[in-house]
Design a protein that fits this description.
326 residues, alpha+beta, Tachylectin-2, Chain A, eight-stranded mixed beta sheet, five-stranded mixed beta sheet, 21 strands, 17% helix, globular, disordered C terminus
Length: 326
């Protein structure tokens, strides 16, 4: 019976995701052709390639994929260990950040990011690894974002009822733990995210929905349903601002989606008014987290995220009550 309970608890987030996902139009860009890509849990568009990584349990490797046909052009191994790789982020042309930040039990003190070169051929490469630590204790995370102008890294924790955005230090130490400091609340069950090219907006996703934020204020611009996927986890934004989604599963599809018009219009208006759009000006990286943190729970469009988390808790309580001795 205990196995049944554990399986039910694990399945709840995915069931909630499937129930709330819309049947949005599917623009299939390609399918992964490599049977070694079993659980695409992260996605980056860089240098004309799509780069992905498997979920926890795989070795220290990423896959460089041809976006025209889904063929793997290169498997890149780096000289290091991998415990629970869950995230990728762009690190400039020809390089990516790999986030070994997964922590299902919330007990790891050895999470890290590694910067590696990637290209269209098999390679064993050196990696520059930097240890990370959460300032408020261990927690699970699957989303790693890199600011397109400053290069600064951000992590989003993954909680059923909600997570947190965290900022890494601007300059990372390879020898000392780099403390991740909280910036503000994030939706529940976030599995990936990315900045838009303007650096003034970012997007995160879970299994069914996506949220677009202003940056650095972390105010919600809007939320929208994602197309149904087997277990959609990966998200990438390319230089043109196009959004791509990947999913776990062998020969899984990679989709391209468009933002809802309301969100596009809002982003365009903000970009035209932003000081960074004016000649000779520069965009701020982020100000004081206490001033920037936005309470997304007050935004009515975030309700479906909360509803999914509440449903998970209710189901768990029902199962526990059913197992109570009579």
């Amino acid at each position: 019976m205990r196995r049944v309970l554990v399986a039910a608890v694990i399945a709840v987030p995915f069931a909630c995701g499937m129930l709330s996902a819309s049947a949005a139009e599917r623009d299939v860009v390609f399918r992964f052709q490599d049977p070694e890509i079993l659980e695409s849990s992260a996605l980056v568009a860089t240098g004309g390639l799509m780069v992905t990584t498997n979920d926890s349990g795989d070795s220290a490797r990423v896959f460089a994929v041809d976006p025209d046909n889904g063929e793997t052009l290169g498997t890149i191994n780096w000289g290091g260990s991998a415990e629970d790789v869950e995230a990728l982020a762009p690190a400039g042309d020809g390089e990516v950040w790999v986030g070994d930040i997964g922590d299902n039990l919330g007990k790891r003190h050895d999470i890290s990011v590694t910067r590696i070169p990637v290209g269209p051929s098999d390679a064993d490469v050196p990696g520059s690894t930097y240890p990370l630590t959460f300032s408020d204790g261990p927690r699970d995370a699957e989303a790693l974002l890199a600011h397109p102008r400053t290069g600064r890294l951000y992590v989003v924790s993954k909680g059923v009822l909600g997570g947190q955005f965290y900022a890494a230090p601007q300059k990372l130490s390879p020898t000392q733990p780099n403390e991740l400091t909280p910036l503000g609340p994030a939706p529940g069950l976030v599995t990936d995210g990315a900045f838009f090219p303007d650096g003034n907006h970012l997007i995160v996703r879970n299994y069914a929905r996506a949220v677009v934020y202003r940056f650095p204020s972390l105010e919600v611009v809007g939320t929208f349903d994602l197309p149904r996927q087997q277990q959609g986890e990966g998200l990438a934004v390319d230089r043109d601002g196009q959004i791509f989604l990947s999913s776990e599963g062998v020969h899984a599809e990679v989709l391209r989606i468009a933002l809802p018009k309301k969100i596009r219009v809002a982003m365009s208006a903000e970009e035209s008014e932003s000081p960074s759009a004016k000649p000779g000006s520069s965009a701020p990286e982020h100000s004081d987290p206490a001033d920037d943190a936005a309470d997304d729970a007050a935004d009515p469009e975030v309700f479906p995220w909360v509803l999914g988390g509440v449903a998970a808790v209710v189901m768990l309580l029902v199962l526990l009550r059913a197992l109570r001795p009579r």
